[in-house]
Amino acid sequence: MSRTEAGDVLTDVVMRTFRLYGAFLDAAEVMTKPVGLTAAWWQVLGPVLREPMSVSGIAREIGLTRQSVQRIADLLVDKGLAEYLPNPAHARAKLLRPTPDGYAAIDRLRDIQHEWANRVSAQVSVEDLRTTLETMTKLVAAVT
Length: 144
Hints:
MarR family winged helix-turn-helix transcriptional regulator, WH-like_DNA-bd_sf, HTH_MarR-typ, mainly alpha, MarR/SlyA-like
């Protein structure tokens, strides 16, 4: 198969995405440390802030393996930041939800995260951010 311009550009996008993901993880570790979380804990708590979800549902939502989410969910439960609930739809696949301490940690993180997001987003136009989000959404759909 021959190379195409679009394929070469997509390869560059993938490489930049790896770099950006690493930078986001580094920033998340800095933001979460003062509130007693880690970037991974925040990533797993995020999807269950509105409603409890199964570990496999969380994994699908954030693009990680079920096993890695299970490990983090168990740690969150051990630390008192989340709890398992019965799942009426599936007896063995319990639902994860934050505890009051988990919600409090996320609340303490909110101002730190907003300050960071405002500082970073001030360097890029809102239109460019919207275009990026739209493009990323299309790429996720194309590769999943």
